[in-house]
Amino acid sequence: MTAAAATLKAAGRSSESAEQRDSAVEITGSLARRGASIRQSLGLGTKKHKQEPLEPVTEAMTPSEEQTEVIDTVLELRDTYTLPEIPPVPLSDSAVEITGSLARRGASIRQSLGLGSKKHKQEPLEPVTEAMTPSEEQTEVIDTVLELRDTYTLPEIPPVPLSVMEINKLIDMEVLEEAYVNLLSLCLEFQKEHQALDQEDYPIELVNKEKDLSLLYGTLRNKMFVIVRNSSALPSRNKELLVYVAYIILEEEKRQGEPGAMQGWRETNPFKGYDYGFNYEFNCCFHSEKVMGSSSLQPELKEDQRVLTLDNDFLNQIKDKYCACLQADMKTSLNRIIELENEDMWREKRKPVIDEGIYTSHIDMDIWTNIKGHVQGSRRIDVNLEQKVVRSCLEELKTFPKRFESAFVKWSSPLSNSSLWAEYHISYINSFSALKEHMESYQDTCPIQLGLVQNEIDGLTTRLSQAVMENFKTDVKPFLRRQMTGKWFSFNEDFSKLISRTETLSDQSKYMTPKHKQAFVNKAHFFVVKEYVSQLMKNNYSCKNRKNETAATKITNQWEELKEIFQDMNSTLDWLHPVGNQLSMIIGCKKSDVKQHLQPLVNNYPDIRKSHLSAVLYFRGIIRGREKHTILQRLAELKQSSGNTGNKEQALFSEIQAAVNTDCMAGTPFSCLSFIVPDS
Description:
By secondary structure, this protein is mostly helical. The chain has helices at residues 3-41, 65-77, 93-112, 136-151, 164-172, 176-195, 204-229, 235-255, 276-292, 312-346, 363-381, 383-398, 400-412, 419-439, 447-481, 493-509, 514-534, 547-568, 578-588, 598-604, 610-620, 626-642, 669-672, and strands at 353-355, 358-360.
């Protein structure tokens, strides 16, 4: 090859290489310009950092084989490449910014909780589009609400409202507007009736109407909550209902502060009353999976990037703070229950409401509904949060029975002699027993905490029941102590008062729940029998001149009255019934016949001792002598032959202390031998 040819070939290669470099530079510039254009269309702006200028390409920057291959490919595609179809709707600014917003909010909440910032670097997430755009139905409802804000007029309120059941049915059937205007009509009716009364006159019918109003408002509010909550899942079905919800909210906005306005109408999510950080964070955690998992994500997004996750320590601290706030709210609600009871019942001295034949209060339903709402709300957030919420509620509820008791005792002590005092006690026995039954639904969730709550409730109901019983005992003891005395033969007023007080107790016990009523009645029955029989054991009086026959007749008649009362009260202590008649037979019979009446007494009451029978004989008029000794000896023989030590659950005489007769030295020496015989 000639030198000229070589020079020409070299120049050709140089010219071709220069042309390729020019093409590559042009393509690079075009790609850069397209990238800038795309960033601008997405609202991302331009790069903020300064880029160093590129050095000019010289001969020394000869491309490698791989780079030369890439350049050749670009040159081949230059005339054949076609840009993919441009989407009809560009990415929205809000969609592009959502990931950054989530990250910023998360960082803010972490800082407020003192958790610091994440140390590891997270790869940027691709923007989310379609999942964040409201549907046409939702957009239409929003527009309708905005238009109605200044133009909506409430339909005419009917002069006579529908019944409570009819209004409740309308709410259940989601006929919201008609239900609402009838509810307003019922509220106006209540206000007029209330204003027409004296302050001290508040009939039970008005109390019930007030509670009906509260329940109906609560039912309507809950129905609105469900409709709003389900609006995203069933937009077509709930579109019209959402509009009616908007009607009611707009009206309630106008009526805020007026008497009878609905409380809690703003509550459209389960996080009411708690830190907004929790509201955001839990919504972020549980809705981000739906958003990040949308099919509208860029194909390049990795599967493990589709869930916006938070580390477990962070979530646990959020849940702990959520439960702490909830427990504080629970304490406030429980204290408010005591305040309302004081304002509505104690100060006004209103009689308890009778529901299904028993005294009741609203306390158990208020507490149960409150806890149930918290638990259901937590379940919608996270099934693992539910147990923590139940535990927090139970821990706060555990201290409530004693707080309530303290406030109630402080108020009620001056009224201990009134029937209202006992009625309140019985209503709270019933109410807290019902609360205990309601709480049993959390047995599987938190058995330990529930057990502690149940112990506190049992302690309260026991103390309330004991208070009523002790009040009864204190009331009737003076009447019982004046039985079997010299005055007793001709004076019946004390026994009549005993019967009257017992009948009052019987009437009150009818309004107890069956479970508590039975135990209460049995205790009252045992107490009256024991105290009545005890009067024979005190050696206060000894019958003379055939007065024993008069005494026996009176004991028999009085015993029949007592037995009849406790049978009417459905006492199950039937084994107590024979003792009065058997003792009266010993008192009224001839001295020689006393031994014949011992066998039934020993059979029914094997715990009777010699001291008991000796006291009965003293009242009978057998104070000393051979007759008394032989009678006591016969008792010892019967007890020994029967071998029956007695049923501890049916022990009567072992609960009675008998007076000891020390007058034996005045009689024959043989009678004194009775003291050698053990008192058994």
